[in-house]
Write a structure and sequence with these properties.
Shape: elongated
Number of helices: 16
Distance between the termini: 69 Å
CATH class of the largest domain: Alpha Beta
Order of helices and strands: HHHHHHHEHEHHHEHEHEHHH
Strand content: 5-15%
Radius of gyration: 29 Å
Structural class: alpha/beta
Number of domains: 3
CATH architecture of the largest domain: 3-Layer(aba) Sandwich
CATH topology of the largest domain: Rossmann fold
Number of strands: 5
Largest sheet: 5 strands, parallel
Helix content: 55-70%
């Protein structure tokens, strides 16, 4: 109890320290802004019937509003206390640019510049602004590239594209899942009954194909971010807890760069050429999920990972979903696809369950088999009765296994 109290006190001290630092920094920024703007009351006469002076004053207000917009974005981030120093340090070049701009506006007003002078000033200012924007964009790209290389996540996009090709010839395959009540509630409701779904089935039942369909469906939601992972037995880049977290980081960071300066500072201080710390991975993903918008997370083939790794993942999923639900119910929505293994069932007891049955895939298998049998009939001149026999026999032997049915037909 004493140790817990000590850690709690240390945590509160750190929070108080961060609040104080943030407040002091903001006050200092306002002080510098105040020193950089003209005393408008002294120049009241200049703004009467002088349109270019009115425009100069508008520039002053525009710069102040730009500072407010960026400062507000920083201080409304749920994780701003963690990332404050990094983000403010990164913002400082923009802030200095704003201060210099304000000082130039001040000089323009105090010197009672002519309309011609103001026009030249506007042209020069635009050139300076464009150069600064290009430098800022280049710096952001440099940091983003460095952080992505540090994450070194698996190429799940390539995995996804390969899986989508399986559905290319029969694009309606698996669409029954999109109409399933438990899935549609998870996917569409503003506040779903549960933020977590477990879709399980026997080997060869087409879970990975369904995962690709679910991912495509989630990616259609423009008001949400989507991350996904395809586990693959025997591949360390696709079966470990840390590998999964790093891939999630790589995918979600592209949606929002607010925390990029903080990630870059962590890269510099971690001492790791490739991110490998489980603790740091969890901290970085947590910050990104809390600071971002609604997020869909799809993980396929969990049973491909060994028991220790999938337990780490499932424990973390329950924890992070609980944290996000406290902040905003339904903010993080997770769907896991796997075989019905005892340890997975034990750890996913609170997940809404969808169990694949033979009837779920019956229509897709028959559609596939019928299409191929039509080609076979044309090639070999089979009678309709022979084709009907092949169709019925293949569908019966498939027993709900899409992969088994497809392979058996091709071998036949």
């Amino acid at each position: 109890m004493q140790r817990m109290t000590r850690y709690t006190d240390q945590g509160l001290d750190k929070v108080a320290s961060n609040f104080a630092e943030g407040f002091d920094t903001l006050l200092s920024a306002y002080e510098q802004i105040g020193e950089s703007i003209p005393l408008v009351e002294q120049y009241r006469a200049l703004f009467t019937g002088s349109s270019h002076m009115d425009e100069a004053l508008a520039l002053v207000y525009g710069d102040i509003l730009e500072f407010h917009r960026r400062a507000l974005r920083l201080f409304t981030l749920p994780t701003w206390r963690q990332a404050f120093r990094s983000i403010w340090k990164d913002f400082n070049s923009r802030f200095e640019h704003i201060l210099r701009d304000l000082r130039r506006h001040k000089e323009l007003i105090e010197s009672q510049a002519t309309a011609l002078h103001f026009q030249q000033y506007q042209a020069d200012r635009q050139i300076i602004f464009e150069k600064f924007e290009l430098l800022e964009i280049a710096e952001t790209k440099r940091k983003y590239s460095a952080v992505l290389q540090w994450f070194a996540g698996a190429d799940s996009l390539l995995d996804h594209e390969d899986t989508c090709k399986v559905r290319h010839e029969f694009p309606t395959t698996g669409h029954w899942i999109l109409k399933h009540s438990k899935y549609s509630t998870w996917r569409m409701d503003d506040v779903p009954r549960t933020s977590t779904v477990w879709l399980n089935g026997i080997p060869g039942a087409g879970k990975t194909v369904l995962a690709s369909l679910i991912i495509e469906d989630c990616l259609q939601e423009k008001t949400a971010d989507t991350a996904f992972f395809y586990c693959k037995h025997g591949d360390l880049q696709r079966t470990t807890f840390v590998a999964i977290l790093k891939t999630i980081l790589s995918q979600l960071l592209k949606y929002d760069h607010d925390l990029l300066p903080w990630y870059y500072d962590n890269l510099l201080t971690s001492g790791q050429l490739s991110l490998s710390s489980e603790k740091l991975c969890k901290e970085l993903v947590r910050a990104l999920l809390l600071s971002g918008k609604k997020t869909f997370l799809v993980i396929d083939g969990l049973d491909e990972c060994d028991r220790n790794q999938r337990k780490l993942l499932l424990d973390w999923l329950r924890e992070i979903v609980g944290i996000c639900d406290l902040q905003d119910p339904g903010k993080l929505r997770v769907i896991v696809l796997s075989q019905d293994e005892p340890d997975i069932r034990k750890n996913l007891g609170a997940f809404s369950e969808i169990s694949l049955t033979a009837s779920n895939n019956a229509h897709d298998i028959k559609q596939f088999v019928t299409g191929w049998c039509t080609k076979i009939q044309h090639k070999f001149g089979l009678e309709d009765e022979e084709v009907d026999y092949i169709i019925d026999s293949t569908c019966h032997r498939a027993d709900g296994r899409t992969v088994t049915g497809f392979i058996w037909l091709k071998l036949r």
